[in-house]
Amino acid sequence: MAGKLGLNRLEALVEQLDRDLNLASTTLTNPTITTNQVATFSSGILNSNITEQSGTAAEDLTATASDLVWYANTAQAANITLPDATAANAGMKIRIIVGTTSWSTTAFKLGFANSGTCVLVGQLYLSTLDGNDVEGFTITANAQSLQIDADDATAAGGAIGSMYEFTYLEANLVHCMAYGMATTGTAAPDAGASTTTGTS
Asked: Mean pLDDT for each consecutive 10-residue tract of the chain (200 residues)?
């Protein structure tokens, strides 16, 4: 009968194992990967978390907990509420895109709920569909939302081609790069393009 494998011998064998796993052509379903090291993905990362608005009503995105691309090919006509920034979601990115139809020409808000303390910092660039001018404006201090109005050349856009990128920096602070388009006029965004009141 073969002798028993002692614990010391077992530990020595385990120490000699090659711990690199070749997972080529392996599918990992819903894994959680936690590392404090730099991760290299030689072919990049495909983020398929894309949501299309199905109507024109108010949109509540406050439950979003990971990177998201949200877009509307419909004439969005009501507030879009983003999640507040917390220490837990720092690093998250949300991109809001106006699709194939310009949004409403009645103003509504894109930002955080009025009840919170989350604010925006960043820049707004605005151009018009019938012009070639681009004007920039710093987002108002302590702003909680952008003023979306597709035909207002002083607001934050909403016409076809508009895009709004939100990067979550720390609790209560989100950086915004807003690339707005207005349907007509001469682009002249002002302090009213971002407001210190939220979506509700």
From this structure: 72 72 82 86 89 96 97 98 97 98 98 96 96 90 98 97 98 98 95 96
What amino acid is encoded at 149 in this protein? D
Backbone angles phi, psi at 51, to 5 degrees: -125, 130
Domain regions of the chain by residue span: 47-195
Distance between CA atoms of 28 and 91, rounded to whole angstroms?
Answer: 24
Closest to 180 (Cα-Cα) out of 79, 120, 103, 114: 103
Question: What dihedral angle (degrees, nearest 10) is formed by the CA atoms of 60, 61, 62, 63?
Answer: 120
C-alpha to C-alpha distances, 172 to 13, 81, 122, 158, 167, nearest whole angstrom: 51, 14, 14, 25, 12
pTM of the model: 0.85
Give the C-alpha separation, 144 to 121, whole Å: 9
